[in-house]
Amino acid sequence: MASPAFCAQLIAFFCSLAVPSHAMEGDKVEMWTEMVTVIEEEEDTRTTTTAAATTVLTQAQQTNGHGQSSDEVDPRSTTEGTMEVPVSKLVTTIDEEPTTAAPASVFTQAQQTNGQSSSGDEVSTRSTTEEMTEVLLSESVTTLDPTTAAPASDIRVTSLAPTSSIEYKFDQNNTVPFSVTIENTGLIAIPEAEFGDNYRFTFILSGSKNLTETGNTVTEVTHGNPANASFVGGLYSGANLTFGEFELTLHVPAAGCVNYSYICVQVSKGSGANYSESDDSNNHACLKFGPFDAGFAGVYRCADIDTVGLEVTYLESSMLNFEVDNIVTYAVTVRNSGPFAIPATNFGNNFNLSFMISNTSDPSSQNTAAVSYMAETSRALQLDAAVPSGTLVVIRDVDVIVSIPNTTCEHYQYMCVGVEKAANASYTDGNPDNNAICILFGDITQGYAGNLPCTGCSLETSVTLPLIMAMIGCFY
């Protein structure tokens, strides 16, 4: 026969069936756990709690469930009255330990709500068992988003590096070994290829590490595969694989070296690949040219002499005279517009300068009529200076002896300067089309090259001289 304590627990449980679902939501699991604990402890305390339980039940029968006397008994059965009010007393009497008081509070709150929410709204009359089942299922089942892509493999290039030091020479073949490491960062392993290869490697010269950037110049590089390398193998999720050494052959024209700053590798699925790729954006890696010891792709001395300024800093008079040596001092501004630095020289100069007067602002034009002059650079400053990529250098105190021809003076409108790489300089000028700049003749205070006496000069001479001779003849 079940003890009173066990019966009390069952009474409390059935009373809880009338509790609204939201009122019991946070305490359902706790209620079940503590009921089991109470029932287990009940077996040990059966003899001490029977009398107390009997007393409380007797008191409950003498009331109608609301503290009234026995002559005002509710028409409902005594059992119903007992279930409505004194359950908390039963549980409190049985559970003498403080840690077991929580179920009593839960049961009491359940009885007080009497099937309604705290706001008085009607609630569902489903059983507590059904509600608890729904909660447990909702917490244990994960709903998959139908828009989420299925797990796949993902090849990522984690390393690209030369295996030996090199300095690239332009206009000739350069052979250099590179190693490549890839990793499968996807969730699914890459299976071994049944036929053909799993991986295809493409090496590229690029002006940008973003291969698809607008205006970027890319050129594929021929290469030989590593000896004894296998491209059919699988790759577990999180595993990596290194291939070395690929033999790259680079042939870069000097005049176009400014178009390239990086060596890149692109890894794609081979002809026998049987896997899905989740992210194509990380399948390539680029390494910038530079010193091997610093972790770059090798020395690539490609600069760009870009002559951007010419200024007269000294002229004895504002006028350049005919057929005489006019000593003019200039300042020439040069920008390195190439991808790599012009290094300083330990001996000699980095730049050679030449000057000319021209009938056009483009001295390289086939229709140019020009007279050239040698520059005297014994006083010049910064001819041997280092010029990092993107920076300027001003070559000052460049002296030039300018002689203006009398007979063809009117043909010339510009003073021009051209800057070229000196013979012993250790860089390559990758773009010779921007080495010269010209400025118009005119007032040097306005930024021009000085005034020429050509305008009206011949007419003035031819009229004045006969007039003077005629006047002299009048007196004889």
Describe the protein.
- The protein is of the alpha+beta class and 476 residues long.
- Helices cover 22% and strands 26% of the residues.
- It has nine helices and 16 strands.
- The chain has helices at 4-15, 21-24, 28-44, 46-61, 78-84, 87-94, 101-113, 128-140, 457-473; strands at residues 155-162, 173-184, 199-206, 218-224, 240-251, 262-269, 284-288, 302-303, 305-315, 326-336, 351-358, 370-376, 392-402, 414-421, 428-429, 436-440.
- Helix 1 packs across helix 6 (87-94).
- The longest helix has 17 residues, at 28-44.
- It is elongated and about 110 Å long.
Which residues form runs of ≥5 with pLDDT under 50? 18-26, 47-58, 60-126, 135-144, 456-476
- Give the N-terminus to C-terminus distance in angstroms: 168 Å
What structural class do you assign from the helix and strand content? Answer: alpha+beta
Number of helices: 9
Spell out the helices and strands N to C: HHHHHHHHEEEEEEEEEEEEEEEEH
Structure, briefly:
The chain is an alpha+beta fold. It has helices at residues 4-15, 21-24, 28-44, 46-61, 78-84, 87-94, 101-113, 128-140, 457-473, and strands at 155-162, 173-184, 199-206, 218-224, 240-251, 262-269, 284-288, 302-303, 305-315, 326-336, 351-358, 370-376, 392-402, 414-421, 428-429, 436-440.
What is the secondary structure topology, with strand pairs?
Blueprint: H1 4-15, H2 21-24, H3 28-44, H4 46-61, H5 78-84, H6 87-94, H7 101-113, H8 128-140, E1 155-162, E2 173-184, E3 199-206, E4 218-224, E5 240-251, E6 262-269, E7 284-288, E8 302-303, E9 305-315, E10 326-336, E11 351-358, E12 370-376, E13 392-402, E14 414-421, E15 428-429, E16 436-440, H9 457-473
Helix pairs in contact: 1-6, 4-6, 6-7
